Amino acid sequence: MKKLDFNIVLLGMIASGKDTQTALLTKKFPLQLVETGVYSRKLLKEKSKNGDWARRTTGKGHPLPTVLLQQFLVREIKKQPKNKNLLFLGGRLKPEAQLIKKLVVNEKKEKLLAFYIKLADKEVYKRSFARKASNVSEIYKVLDEKKLIATRIKWHKDQVGKTVKYYQKLGIMRVINGNQPIAKVHKDILKEIEKFRKNG
After folding, report:
1. DSSP string covering 26-80, please?
2. pLDDT of 95 above 60
3. If I label 124, which of 50, 86, 156, 177 is the partner at 20 to 30 A Cα–Cα?
4. Please, what is the angle between helix 94-101 and helix 66-78, to 10°?
5. Where are the beta strands (DSSP E) in 63-152?
6. pLDDT of the residue at 74
7. Is the Cβ–Cβ distance between 124 and 13 less than 8 Å?
8. CA pair distance 189, 20, nearest whole angstrom
9. Please, what is the angle between helix 36-45 and helix 49-59, to 10°?
10. pLDDT tens-digit profile of 121-160?
11. Distance of CA 182 to the CA centre of its chain
């Protein structure tokens, strides 16, 4: 597997297949995975000063403290093997994206390419419900779940939308149609990677 000459950020709508595409990319290229979401969830469960701080902050509706995220990112970037590029799965909020850009582009002097897998709302609902409700109690569960998904979609469009625009202004964002079979989504991503490889 030939190393790329740039690092990758992968974002996407709920149920857009980010994990699947991540797995395919790590098979195709030598990539070191950096998962900000996994770190955040782990920290929120942690019994420590940082864990308490994270819970207090997120409990007020604010994102994870930038200082904590920066510590994590700096740590992960330092661990980067020489024979691998970084694949950031996450960094959904604009301050996180700015931090990734600062650490990778400004300080490491390395290039960055960002992807966003776009998915229609109706497809998000469809993929979120693998099985149809078969009785009344299940129907109520589905209705509650629909409200929850609607809230998540709204938050995603408001917050992650700002991140997408930020990367677009930098000229490094590539939007991929997620309303396609997995293989086609992967093919479209590879096509953009090849273009960026040639043209930068």
Report:
1. HHHS-EEEEEHHHHHHHHHH--SHHHHHHHHHHHTTPPPPHHHHHHHHHHHHHT-
2. yes
3. 86
4. 40
5. 85-89, 111-118
6. 86
7. yes
8. 12
9. 110
10. 999 988 887 544 444 455 445 556 788 888 889 989 999 9
11. 17
